Predict the structure.
Amino acid sequence: MVHYIRSIIPYFTVNAPQLAFIVSSVCRPRRLRWRSGCGDEINFWDKWLGGRGLKWAEKYRERLDPYQPLQGHLSELIDARPGEYVKVLDVGAGPVSSVGKVWKDRTLTLIAVDALAKDYQVLLRKHRIEPVVRTRFSEAETLTKHFAESSFDLVHSRNSLDHSIDPIRGIDQMLRVVKNGCYVYLEHLSNEGHAENYTGLHQWNFGEENGRFVVSTRARWKINVSAVFARRAEIRTDTRTDGRGKWVIVTMRKCGGAAFAPDPVTQTCGNNPPTRGVDRAGVAPSSDVAVPCARVVPHKK
């Protein structure tokens, strides 16, 4: 744990009081605080399953359709020819995964996991629903306890990782279990913690700043995720807007490397020098989050 904290501290934008808050937060029983917020999540899915999707009835039918095709924006991230075997992991899938179950001319195996899987099994029995893919138990932060490293062709997480205990550790685990050259795909509502007034499991904000993926909290400190994982993945951050709001979409193509990025000031990528104005802690003096060596695909406006 100490090594982990040291490894990501250079990518915080914090002042001294905020850093003290971070350290104290890590030392508290985070799991107990997280568990206390699970009731709202379980109640939502109880109503959603009982109401056959409520106002999202079409999504309900799609999730329970055994012939639901793998979504185009996901299949285009997988390099698989017809006849090949494809393995996809859905992290934070809820009681019924939203990921498609079949892919034409390929053999698709979908594995769905969620930290609340045991609670969801109770709800499925209550409402007499048999999902196409039953969600297994695994926290995002402990995927390698359940799956071998470099074993999936795609790892997917939608509107769930920002509900976890530690999303940075969750991303680290996702990159471990996806194969080299393959993608981790994240799709989350922007700044949901702030929008939900930090109630229940909504303790994290996912955002996009100048093409970079950032995570922040109520304490107003930020982690430049693009910098943290710059040595391990090629990262692209986009946004889109629909009736629910603004979404942050992150694709991370695993390219190997150390568990966490080295000192961002001394490390460069190709001919790109370290960003000017960054101190030895890797924190920009302004409110901007600097990425001295991250391989970031420019954001399309």
